[in-house]
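Follow-up to my post from last week.
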Amino acid sequence: MATPNIPLWEVFIRSRNGLAHKHVGSLHATDATLALQAARDIYTRRGEGLSIWVVPSNAITASDPSEKGMMFEPAESKIYRHPTFYDVPEEVGHM
Amino acid sequence: MYTQALNSSEGEDRPLEDAERAAQFQARIDAEERIEPNDWMPAAYRKTLTRQISQHAHSEIVGMLPEGNWITRAPSLRRKAALLAKVQDECGHGLYLYAAAETLGSSREELVDLMLAGKAKYSSIFNYPTLTWADIGTIGWLVDGAAIMNQIPLCRCSYGPYARAMIRVCKEESFHQRQGFEIMLMLCRGTAEQKAMAQDALNRWWWPVLMMFGPPDQASQHSDTSTRWKIKRFSNDELRQKFVDATVPQAQFLGLTIPDPGMKQNENGNWEYSAIDWDEFKQVLAGNGPCNRERLAARRKAHEDGAWVREAAMAYAEKRKQRAALQAAE
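User reply:
Got it. Predicted complex:
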């Protein structure tokens, strides 16, 4: 008999206070409580974190890599959004 | 984001792949870009990686067995704690790798079932027995040492999830090798009997460890395309030579003799080893090694004995979901 599929979760860990939670990987668990415990055992055996988030993988909506041009190209031409676009005379000093 | 559903059915059954897409794909590889799960990839790339990553995962899981054999008999609490932590790491490595393999579209359950059915391979090395405590030292020193040699280049593999899993694995693997070497050092500095035990373990593990790097370059069936796709960065023989060159001085430091009387150092400083018995390797891969049957039987038993836990956890989650739905309706 084939082994039944157990839901997939994505794991996010905050490594230090003041930092954002960062995606570290995924795991299988039947519910959120078990997912948190499994995340602790799999991803924080060496003090990697202070806080864990687990999110059901199917709750994540991802952008389509084949449409990354449409998504991200509009920003590429807008160099005036960066501070280096603007000239400040040297005499003015650091701004 | 790495769900199976996003990666379904592409490739395999398509008769002709878009040549233009394949060329674009190779151009990305050549430019050292990383390929991510939902990017287009040739079916053969997906297949090769699924095979390699899942075999790698199975190896980590089966690799827990020879060492687990010694947890209750470790000679001190310090050794026992370290061995427990190491075996737990191997389990973690297996899980990172199954997760990486799943991003290619096969579920962990399917992959595990293939292994349990004897249809998927795992590293030949884990089909050898751990007869004495010195075997635990030798496994850490040589088997994990060889694994590190093999895995460091995989941290730069073209497939993103595999490369990221390998970075984590390599960080943790270094403790494994060092604790193994420390066990060997203690034995070699101990009584004559302890030193003899260390030498005996080295004698039994040396050749199987060299075989871990896979068949010689002229006979390796997967190397060419894997190199072109930058899954593989060094050939089997190159890695094997690097390992031998790194290991010989360590054995000398321990005062142990490598069981290869014909071994000599050439003018480039490389240690030339004698011919490897590839028939033994083929036999072990074909299922006829000293422990193949025992390993598979142990994995099957663990899987079957755990079935009620999986079922209970699923039933509990289902019950909670239904209760929540009822409460919401009230």
